[in-house]
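Input C-alpha cells:
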C-alpha cells in the first residue's frame, strides 16, 4: 500500500482526533517502522489494518465508518494533489465510471508500485451506474467514502447501495435529483 495513504491517514488523525491519538495508535499498532512513512514508499497493507484497528478501539468508531470518512477526505486530498485527474469529467458518475480505465491507470504512473483494485462498469445511465469492485483488500467502505467525496466535489448528492457477492462487490450509485 502506498505510503501516501498512511501519511494522509496519520495527518487526518492528528487534525481530527489530536496529536496524542496519532501517537497512541502508532504505539498500539506496534509498527515495524515506528510510524515513519514516506509518501512514495510502499508498505504492507496489514500495517494499515493495525492502525485502523487501534484507531477504532481508541475512538469507539467502527472500522468501516472510519474508512468511509477517511475516504471522503482522501478524495479531496488526492484531487488537490493531482487536479488534472478531475478536468475531463462533468459529473461524479462520469468520474466514478472512469476510475478503472482513466484515473487509476494515471495513478499507476504517478505512484509507481500502487496496488489498485478493479472496477468493472456494468451499466451506465444518466442518473445511475452499476459498477463491480474487485480487490482482495475489501476496502468497500473506503471506496464509498471516495465516491461520496467525488459527489461532494461536484456539489452532487448520491445514494450508494452495495451487494457483496462471491469475489466482487456490486455498487449501485444513483444521483439524487
Ligand atoms: C471515486 C473515485 C475513486 C474510487 C472509487 C477509488 C477507489 C480506490 C480503492 C477502493 C482503493 C483501495 C485499494 C483496493 O481496494 O485494493 C484505491 C486506492 C488508491 N487510489 Fe483510488 N479511487 C478513486 C479515485 C482516485 C483518485 C482521484 C486518485 C488520485 C490520485 C486515486 C488514487 C489512489 C491511490 C494512490 C491508491 C492507493 C494504492 C496503493 O495503496 O497501492 N484514486 N482507490
Amino acid at each position: 500500500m502506498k505510503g501516501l495513504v498512511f501519511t494522509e491517514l496519520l495527518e487526518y488523525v492528528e487534525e481530527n482526533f489530536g496529536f496524542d491519538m496519532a501517537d497512541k495508535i502508532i504505539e498500539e499498532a506496534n509498527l515495524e517502522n515506528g510510524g515513519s512513512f514516506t509518501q512514495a514508499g510502499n508498505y504492507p497493507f496489514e500495517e494499515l489494518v493495525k492502525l485502523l484497528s487501534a484507531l477504532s478501539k481508541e475512538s469507539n468508531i467502527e472500522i468501516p465508518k472510519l474508512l468511509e470518512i477517511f475516504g471522503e477526505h482522501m478524495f479531496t486530498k488526492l484531487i488537490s494533489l493531482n487536479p488534472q485527474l478531475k478536468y475531463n469529467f462533468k459529473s461524479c458518475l462520469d468520474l466514478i465510471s472512469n476510475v478503472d480505465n482513466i484515473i487509476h491507470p494515471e495513478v499507476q504512473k504517478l505512484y509507481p508500485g500502487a496496488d489498485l483494485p478493479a472496477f468493472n462498469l456494468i451499466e451506465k445511465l444518466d442518473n445511475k451506474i452499476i459498477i463491480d469492485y474487485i480487490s482482495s483488500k475489501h476496502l468497500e467502505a473506503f471506496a464509498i467514502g471516495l465516491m461520496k467525496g467525488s459527489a461532494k466535489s461536484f456539489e452532487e448528492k448520491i445514494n450508494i447501495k452495495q451487494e457483496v457477492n462471491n469475489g466482487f462487490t456490486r455498487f449501485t450509485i444513483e444521483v439524487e435529483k
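Residues 1 and 115 are 6 Å apart (CA to CA). The helical segments are 3-17, 19-29, 45-59, 63-81, 84-87, 92-97, 99-110, 140-153.
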